[in-house]
Automatic annotation (TrEMBL):
Keywords: Oxidoreductase. Residues 1-34 are annotated as: Disordered. One of its GO terms (molecular function) is phenylacetyl-CoA 1,2-epoxidase activity. This is 1,2-phenylacetyl-CoA epoxidase subunit A. Residues 17-28 have a biased composition (Low complexity). Pfam families: PaaA_PaaC. InterPro entries: Aromatic_CoA_ox/epox, Ferritin-like, Ferritin-like_SF, PaaA, PaaA_PaaC. It is an enzyme of class 1 (oxidoreductase). Its EC number is 1.14.13.149.
Amino acid sequence: MATAAAHRTAGTEPGEAAHPAASSARTAEQQTAFDEAVAADERIEPRDWMPDAYRATLVRQIAQHAHSEIIGMQPEANWITRAPSLRRKAILMAKVQDEAGHGLYLYSAAETLGTSREELLDKLHSGRQKYSSIFNYPTLTWADVGAIGWLVDGAAITNQVPLCRCSYGPYARAMVRVCKEESFHQRQGYESLLALSRGTEAQHEMAQDAVDRWWWPSLMMFGPPDDESSHSEQSMTWKIKRHSNDELRQRFVDICVPQAESLGLTLPDPDLAWNEARGHYDFGPIDWTEFWDVLKGNGPCNDQRITQRRRAHEEGAWVREAAAAHAAKHGKATA
Ligand SMILES: [Fe+2]
Ligand SMILES: [Fe+2]
């Protein structure tokens, strides 16, 4: 931790006089130290003073991210029992378990901001906090597992690599580990789609159909266009976000087009074309009506996902109780 940290670490000590004028001068000093630390690319750590709105933004973003990891287990878990070979089954089980692990790192990161996991899960189950809308689409065929790995995990990496430099230390560090695993997920999806694309005619068609269905929702994963994104600007100032939604979406398109060519598959957008002047691929308009509709709860699987999540939580109550009882017993024994 850098030298500026000393000024921003200490809060009001017990017994310290809480004179209103003194305390507002102290807050101004802490705000300055915080701003300087962010400007100098230093990390903000859990014990450091931070503005309430910064804390609230992080809790909202990390919670949504954590929820997406665990809800995201459902569409792919749907195919574990029907994986076409033992090898594919082992890979898919490992991937789905990784996503549970990502959820755990992220709920832990949120806990460092003073929010309990129970509280966040309760908000997810009661619909007061959201998860990524991409997981409200169904996985209709085995090829969807490949398309999700390639496109959905691919989009997640594009979003998350810059988060490794996020100003909040615990979130940034969680992202380093998550990104390493996500890149494996992306590659296994690509490899699985490649096998299908080069397989029989029916397998090739199945791969193409999956890409046709997942392409546009993947582009929507980057969130609304910059001019409609309510949280973006402040998050950029705080260095929680490093790039805008549209920048990241463009980066993703530029990565995917040559990969689709190598896969021997087409992307379902007649407007996709290399733009020499911009040095990027142009792409067609996104159907934002669909995005807002799914976000409001009207996607094909919204109800199913949250019902299954609530049921899993209720059915897992005995595991949490047993773990707590074991920890209490163990604690007593060591004492
Ligand atoms: Fe993940
Ligand atoms: Fe993943």
